[in-house]
Amino acid sequence: MAGLTISTIFLSVNTGFAEVPEFRLIIKDHLFEPTQLEIPAGEKIKLIVENQDVTPEEFESHSLNREKIIPAKGKIILFLGPLEKGTYPFVGEFHEESAKGNIIAK
Fold first, then answer.
1. How many other CB atoms sit within 10 Å of the CB of residue 94?
2. For labeling, which of 14, 64, 66, 94 is most exposed (least CB within 10 Å)?
3. Contact at 8 Å (CB) between 51 and 31?
4. 45, 20 contact by CB (below 8 A)
5. Which residue in 45, 39, 49 sits closest to 80, CA to CA?
6. At residue 93, what are phi and psi to the nearest 5 degrees?
7. CB neighbours (10 Å) of residue 103?
8. Position 2 confidence tier, pLDDT thresholds 50, 70, 90
9. 3-class SS at 44?
């Protein structure tokens, strides 16, 4: 009986992660691509931010309450939400004049 319970819990946890939709942002030449990323409102999402530059960058968003260094040629994973409908600006703090964008929850 205990084995059945543990298996059931493992399957529930594993299934939960598989259903989180993934979105990707690329940093290249100190610019985010895309600059406008649409995500579903009211759902938790997985955001992968990949830095293709040879210098580190910092993903920063005050409205999302996130600040994370991305190493050169590296990537990070953030889990966001569920978010209310709206626009959530973000910048690359090390190149704030060029690295800008918005996450739009619809």
1. 16
2. 14
3. no
4. yes
5. 45
6. -60, -30
7. 23
8. very low
9. coil
